[in-house]
Inverse folding.
C-alpha cells in the first residue's frame, strides 16, 4: 500500500477529514481550529483541493453557513451534493438543510 504524500499541513487536514463520520459535516474553520491553525480556513480549503484522489471524504466539509463552496473541485457538476445525499444529508440549492442536525463538532466527539 502506498503512503499518502503531501505537506505536513495537508496530511494533518486529510487525517482529520477521515474522522468525520458518514452523514455528518464540519466546516473549514472547524478543521483549522482543531489542527491548531485557527484562522486558516482558506488554507484548509487549498489542502482539500488536492485530497480527492486520496480516499479522503472532502465532501463532508462546508462553509460555516452550510454552503457547498468546494463543489467545483469535484468531478461532475453535482458530485459533492450527490455524495452528501447518499449519506442522508439534504441539500437544496447548494446548501445543507438542517445544518445543526448534521453538524459534527470534533471537540465533543473525539
Amino acid at each position: 500500500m502506498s503512503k499518502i504524500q503531501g505537506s505536513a499541513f495537508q496530511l494533518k487536514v486529510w487525517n482529520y477529514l477521515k474522522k468525520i463520520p458518514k452523514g455528518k459535516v464540519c466546516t473549514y474553520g472547524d478543521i483549522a481550529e482543531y489542527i491548531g491553525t485557527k484562522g486558516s480556513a482558506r488554507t484548509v480549503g487549498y489542502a482539500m483541493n488536492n485530497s480527492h484522489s486520496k480516499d479522503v471524504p472532502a465532501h463532508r466539509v462546508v462553509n460555516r453557513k452550510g454552503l457547498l463552496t468546494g463543489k467545483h473541485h469535484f468531478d461532475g457538476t453535482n458530485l459533492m451534493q450527490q455524495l452528501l445525499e447518499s449519506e442522508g444529508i439534504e441539500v437544496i440549492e447548494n446548501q445543507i438543510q438542517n445544518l445543526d442536525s448534521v453538524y459534527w463538532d470534533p471537540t465533543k466527539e473525539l
